[in-house]
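Honest question from a wet-lab person: if I give you the sequences of every part of a complex, can you actually get the arrangement of the whole thing, not just the pieces? Trying it with mine:
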Amino acid sequence: MSIFCFANNQIQAIDKAGVPVTDLLVQRGYGIFDFLRVAGDKPLFIDDHLDRFFHSAEKMRLTIPQTREDIKNIVKELIQKNQLTYSGIRMIIAGGDAPDGYTIEHPHLIIIQAPLAEPTIHLPETGIKLATYSYQRQIPDVKTTDYLMAVWLQPWMKQQGADDILYYYNGIISECPRSNFFLVTKENVLVTAQQNMLNGITRKNILKVCEAHSIPFQIRDININELKEAKEAFITSSTKRIIPVQQIDEFVFKSDYVSSVAKNIYELLVQLEH
Amino acid sequence: MSIFCFANNQIQAIDKAGVPVTDLLVQRGYGIFDFLRVAGDKPLFIDDHLDRFFHSAEKMRLTIPQTREDIKNIVKELIQKNQLTYSGIRMIIAGGDAPDGYTIEHPHLIIIQAPLAEPTIHLPETGIKLATYSYQRQIPDVKTTDYLMAVWLQPWMKQQGADDILYYYNGIISECPRSNFFLVTKENVLVTAQQNMLNGITRKNILKVCEAHSIPFQIRDININELKEAKEAFITSSTKRIIPVQQIDEFVFKSDYVSSVAKNIYELLVQLEH
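Yes, you can. This is the full assembly:
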């Protein structure tokens, strides 16, 4: 049985849905998206994701033909029709057909739902390895569909024995391709980047629980040299909540994750979802 | 009557052809292309374009399912079926369906033909205005589908009263979004960028005719401060051959294009097409 999606202004089977070959998304890579996790029939933090989606669209001058309520209703209908136990929803705005192949005239909405593994109840105990790479994403506060560098770097990343990439530029850490980055200083202060990265919804939720539970944090530039001084590090995303980092390049963290700051925050994030 | 294109491994009407919503080109902006001009039934410099197309694909780790001969035959068939007086051919390799939304597994070919205005017999006498913008295209020697910045900058460019954008980075000129850039020094030496830009086929042909006709040229970094010292400037592309530049930002060239180096080269380029 095929999964349903929304494309060409209708709900239809995903294997029948295509983006016109003349679309700006296909010809010029011009589009934005957002991605959220769905627990059963509950789209998590959908208002935060829609806020960011509309911000991305506005900055990229892509007029969304639907209202927020329209989009919520389409998401609801897809969830009901597809009946997936656990899933992710991807909302895309494609640049649309441009008679001159260059000018934005007819942006349009695509919504795709796909099965997703449910994150574990507690923070995973095994950390991953990150490989640092000097790169700055273009228009970084917008969730564009541009993952050219991230996809291109996959073989390089595997050669490094790494599980993900950590971008930095001019010595300042920004983010991973699909996750925000946090470190915990020796003084037990949580630190995350302040600029040149995407404003993740999980990052936002973490800062919220830090405020609510008086966990000390700083939002500021992170120099790449600080990594070696850090006590622990982790990455965050809507898909996985938090993944601990065990190693960055050659530097191995000595953290005991069972007693980590990340573990504490993870439990608070789980509570936020209910 | 609909125009025919090649997509989903077959020749079909363009309005029926779509890229799957799950394709890496749609979800991650991962694709390359090339574009060539067709005079009647003659695809111009197709071997040069195929050389670059296969180079782009190889560097981006996109295996093209067809051979060069296959592609030439499809192009020939499209030209015969569509019977356009003057046209352009766009060949795209899309990243393809990725079960994990990230890993390249099934790249596929799309070929689109569309009507195109025939360039004038002689160099246009009116020059355009360029607005400089600090930006470096990612993986610049590859013709990727990433035109995010170029499309995004269109309203800004129009505000400047400009017709096109000239990218520079760290003080060095690279290219326009869809054209190479040349200037002519006071000593009548043609200069074009040596790095961080796309190797245009028209650029290549210009360097070829310069060699053949002993027109002095240099391939080297162009400092943005050199613009004010230049005698003339022009941009080049497969679509237009050469367009003279009358103004860059506030600086207006005093060139008389009728007697320009560009005019001479333009005539030689026209001859190359026969």
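Two things worth pointing out. Chain A has two domains: 4-115, 128-272. The first strand of chain A starts at residue 4 and ends at 7.
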